């Protein structure tokens, strides 16, 4: 029993410390989202001069976009690549946290221009908050670093569940803290039930 307590306590501490930077990202971005903040909304747009590119004969839009941005020396997470035959254009959104690029290829001349906005650090946190979501299913996670962020978002959920369970276990073991813990647990449960009932009914 002592070994279980010691291992649980140590893992609770170590995993909590490991997870803290990721929780800060989600905490700060949640406050920004909750208060309708849009950091960097007015960031200026810079456009590059046209650059010649080779447009590959590729049906898969993600591979097409990846090939073109590689020619331009650009890396990042691709958005939904759009072919626009009527306008003779291919539009390729490319995002990294805090920076947005839109590559527009004129398929008549095979010239590409890049429009860049840099909304900044806080905007990057909001982007990371939303990045693992279900929008752009099948497209999201096409950049290695964003795929790694998706995995860490999953890990964050699992570790928070472990911290919750281990926290309850450690509370039950520490007899001196049981009364205070019971009050906090009860207050949290009542708040949750009241809020859910208010939302549903």
List keywords for this structure.
201 residues, alpha+beta, seven-stranded antiparallel sheet, elongated
Structure description:
The chain has a domain at 45-150. 53% of the residues lie in helices and 16% in strands. The chain contains 5 helices and 7 strands. It has helices spanning 2-34, 61-71, 121-130, 144-173, 178-200, and strands spanning 45-47, 51-52, 77-78, 82-84, 89-96, 99-106, 111-117. Strands 1, 2, 3, 4, 5, 6 and 7 form a 7-stranded antiparallel beta sheet that branches. The protein is elongated.
Brief description of this entry?
With 201 residues, the protein is of the alpha+beta class. The protein contains five helices and seven strands. The chain has a domain at 45-150.
Averaged pLDDT, please?
92
Distance between the termini: 44 Å
Biggest sheet, open or closed, and with what strands and sense?
A: 7 strands, antiparallel
| Estimated share of beta-strand residues | 15-25%
Question: Which helices and strands occur, and which strands form pairs?
Answer:
Blueprint: H1 2-34, E1 45-47, E2 51-52, H2 61-71, E3 77-78, E4 82-84, E5 89-96, E6 99-106, E7 111-117, H3 121-130, H4 144-173, H5 178-200
Antiparallel strand pairs: 1-7, 2-7, 3-5, 4-5, 5-6, 6-7
Helix pairs in contact: 1-3, 1-4
């Amino acid at each position: 029993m002592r070994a279980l307590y010691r291992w649980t306590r140590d893992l609770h501490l170590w995993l909590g410390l490991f997870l803290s930077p990721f929780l800060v990202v989600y905490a700060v971005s949640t406050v920004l989202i909750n208060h309708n903040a849009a950091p960097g909304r007015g960031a200026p747009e810079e456009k590059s001069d046209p650059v010649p590119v080779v447009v590959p004969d590729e049906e898969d839009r993600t591979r097409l976009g990846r090939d073109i941005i590689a020619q331009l020396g650009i890396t990042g997470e691709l958005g939904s690549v759009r072919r626009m035959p009527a306008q003779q254009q291919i539009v390729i959104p490319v995002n990294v946290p805090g920076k947005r690029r839109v590559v527009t290829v004129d398929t008549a001349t095979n010239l590409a221009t890049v429009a860049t906005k840099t909304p900044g650090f806080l905007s990057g946190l909001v982007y990371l908050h939303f990045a693992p979501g279900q929008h752009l299913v099948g497209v999201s996670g096409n950049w290695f670093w964003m795929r790694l962020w998706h995995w860490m978002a999953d890990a964050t959920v699992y570790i928070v569940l472990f911290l919750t369970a281990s926290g309850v276990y450690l509370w039950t073991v520490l007899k001196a803290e049981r009364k205070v813990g019971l009050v906090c647990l009860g207050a949290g449960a009542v708040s949750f039930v009241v809020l859910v009932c208010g939302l549903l009914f």
